[in-house]
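Structure in, sequence out. Go:
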């Protein structure tokens, strides 16, 4: 028996891993998640802002960042809509407009009183890299060539009558998987203008971003899928990040189980092999 366990076909391991992950995603059990201090700081900062505040959302990621960043974006939108926040979205990444549409498209159905153009606007992707940011500081409509992601004239959208430049943002929140990202926002926008910055990032970026958090240049950080799941707990709306954490926890548990069984099998059969 131990020989079979020690030499189990790797295809069985892969099949079990797929099964465990799929089951956790389709039927999440909601393992207990305790929000970290960083995630609580982000939630509390946003919650303390006055009702009706205007938030700039920098959608600085592509489809590869969806599992870790999209749940955080949706949770923040839910929190903001409860406080009657207004959101203006754009990004330096080519899929910025699509990411914003996806985030709001799911949440908007939960808030039927919130309307596009009045409560949120998706300017979408605009080319230029970090050169776009100082242009947005000067004049949003000019930098965006006067149109949004849906090809509407910005001048026709009520929200844009009060949001002329990035200087009109009460808070900047970026969702970022790389460059351009937080360094460019700090250099061109939040540093010179003194606008507070909160970031949601992928897990592998956390070590490089923490110096900005420790220096106060980033007010709070939502770190990866775990941070997004913690934010879902705080807004009391479990969603895909919590399901993802279930899948991650169960898959790690399965790996540990096979490591234990493999080592037991090795020690139980090594004398026989000798």
């Amino acid at each position: 028996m131990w020989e079979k366990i020690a030499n189990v076909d790797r295809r069985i391991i892969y099949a079990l891993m797929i099964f465990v992950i799929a089951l956790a995603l389709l039927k999440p059990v909601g393992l207990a998640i305790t929000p970290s201090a960083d995630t609580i700081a982000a939630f509390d900062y946003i919650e303390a802002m006055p009702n009706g505040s205007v938030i700039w959302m920098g959608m600085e990621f592509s489809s590869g960042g969806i599992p870790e960043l999209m749940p955080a974006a949706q949770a923040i939108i839910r929190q903001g809509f409860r406080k009657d926040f207004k959101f203006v979205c754009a990004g330096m990444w080519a899929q910025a407009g699509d990411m914003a549409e996806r985030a709001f498209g799911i949440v908007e159905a939960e808030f039927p009183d919130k309307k596009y153009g009045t409560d949120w606007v998706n300017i979408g992707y605009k080319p230029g890299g970090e050169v776009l940011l100082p242009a947005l500081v000067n004049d949003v409509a000019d930098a965006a060539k006067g149109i949004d992601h849906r090809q509407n004239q910005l001048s026709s959208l009520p929200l844009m009558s009060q949001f002329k430049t990035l200087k009109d943002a009460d808070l900047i929140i970026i969702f970022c998987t790389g460059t351009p990202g937080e360094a460019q926002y700090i250099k061109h926008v939040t540093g010179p203008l003194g606008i507070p910055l909160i970031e949601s990032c992928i897990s592998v970026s956390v070590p490089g971003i923490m110096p900005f958090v420790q220096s106060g240049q980033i007010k709070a950080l939502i770190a990866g899928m775990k941070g997004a799941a913690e934010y879902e707990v705080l807004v009391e709306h479990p969603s895909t990040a919590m399901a993802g954490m279930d899948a991650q926890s169960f898959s790690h548990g399965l790996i540990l189980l096979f490591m234990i069984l493999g080592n037991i099998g090795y020690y139980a059969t090594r004398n026989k092999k000798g």
